[in-house]
Design a protein that fits this description.
There is one protein chain. It is built from five helices and no strands. By secondary structure, the chain is mainly α. The protein has one domain. Keywords: Membrane, Transmembrane, Transmembrane helix.
Amino acid sequence: MRQAATIVRNFIRNKRPAPYRFRPSRGYRALISRLTGAIVRAMLVVVMIATPSVLTQSVSQDTAEVVALVALFAAALTFFEYASTYPGLVEFRDAPPFNRIRFLSLFLTVFLLSVVCMGQHDPAVLAKLISYLGGMSLMRLIFPIARFG
């Protein structure tokens, strides 16, 4: 019984409140990992926001500058949210798998709509294919009313 009490007492005495301070490689690795992830997420947000203006060719110089400014603000918000230890203004990092699915679905939607809009000015094969597949899926989703009557 005394041995167990001695082990517990020694464990409590030797326990440090912040062990990463005494092992800088572990803390720096976590910091580098968090910053790298935040930078990658910020770049992905920039790519998603800039995709429509890059794909469509009927964009003026002023519109491209505004899109770049909005993309930089969104990237800064994303970077500071994911790089900080505690949540900031917008708390959206609590559900990582759902956030990835949301981002991928939003990016796919933006990309496909941009390609369809690009196809109105420059009819490419990809734009025609996506328009055709979108029309076919729309026809499958719309049920005729007379069928249920």
